[in-house]
Write a structure and sequence with these properties.
about 180 residues, alpha/beta, Rossmann fold, three-stranded antiparallel sheet, 4 helices, about 25% helix, globular, binds inosinic acid, binds magnesium ion
Length: about 180
């Protein structure tokens, strides 16, 4: 599986070291407020599990399944919510996602949650691609900024594969053009 990578961007140990820093920042901010984490599945699963275990605060966890991809490497536009949004009125929300690419997912999730009148919303992403975006989609907490390349591993998939790779890497171009 690892041989399908053109190169490794972040080894597992590097990711975990960064999560220590992010967890410290998040814990500092939410020290005196009760935090509700909204994790966007499936991509943020590994990230969520490793990050949340580093936050020593009482918190609630809800997961949202959304789909914007149809098996390829480009955003399809329309976002599909697979369930109704959790009841988040008056809560301090922290949205977790694996990667900020076009930003459409986070903009749509934020808009949807905003309708339920939370007290605050912050966004935390492990990766953000360097690119121009139609709508600004900022992250309050960011793991790593990467070039505009298709990456897999540590929860990120290509056609539902590679999520269980412990590292994050760039998938070989010929596999994207013609998956096995
Ligand atoms: P966005 O809405 O374009 O910001 O992207 C949303 C989703 O697309 C992310 O949560 C990922 O699931 C997926 N995605 C975007 N870029 C990549 C990538 O490089 N590898 C794997 N999944 C990606
Ligand atoms: Mg995906």
């Amino acid at each position: 599986m690892q041989s399908d990578l053109e190169r490794v961007l972040f080894e597992e140990a590097t990711i975990l070291r960064r999560l220590d820093e992010m967890a410290a920042q998040i814990s500092e901010h939410y020290r005196d407020r009760e935090l509700t984490v909204i994790a966007i599945l499936n991509g943020s699963l590994m990230f969520m599990a490793d990050l949340l275990r580093r936050i020593p605060l009482p918190l609630r966890l809800d997961c949202l399944s959304v789909a914007s991809y149809h098996g390829k490497t480009e955003t399809s536009g329309e976002l599909i919510f697979k369930q109704v949004a959790p009841d988040v009125a008056d809560r301090h929300l922290l949205i977790l996602d694996d990667i900020l690419d076009s930003g459409q997912t986070l903009v749509a999730v934020r808009e949807k949650l905003q309708m339920a009148n939370p007290r605050s919303i912050r966004v935390c992403v492990l990766l953000r691609k360097k690119k121009l975006r139609e709508r600004p989609a900022n992250a309050d907490y960011l793991g790593f900024e990467i070039e505009d390349e298709f990456v897999v591993g540590y929860g990120l998939d290509f056609m539902e594969r590679y999520r269980n790779l412990p590292c994050i890497g760039v998938l070989r171009k010929e596999l994207i053009a013609q998956p096995k």
